[in-house]
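Weekly modeling sync, notes
Attendees: S.R. (lead), two postdocs, one rotation student

Agenda item 3: backlog of single-chain predictions. S.R. asked that every request posted to the team notebook include the full sequence so nobody has to chase files. The rotation student volunteered to paste the first one in as an example of the format we agreed on. Action items at the bottom.

Example entry:
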Amino acid sequence: MTALVPFFWKPPDPSGLVLFVAIGLVSASGHFLLIKAYRHAPASLLAPYCYFEIVSATVLGLVFFGNFPGAVTWLGVAVIVSSGIYISLRERRVRGSP
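Predicted structure, as returned to the notebook:
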């Protein structure tokens, strides 16, 4: 699609530029905080917090776009969450943690 951009690109207006900068700053800050979190805690401990992304994406999609995930999406969510729970329980058993 990049090859087609020169034919269809329209420069953003000032409010669009402000939004681009805001998205960039929020995204960069979020990634920086994730990097810091992974320096201070093991991934197996932080993984359950990443499931909040599923919840927040669902809420934002519903609020801003009126879109609620279908059955296939919920099946995928169930697979992801159950896999994370299984891995967490297995790691506890392997390490001997309570």
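Discussion: group reviewed the output briefly. The chain has two domains: 12-41, 42-98.
Action items: rotation student to repeat for the remaining queue; S.R. to check formatting next week.
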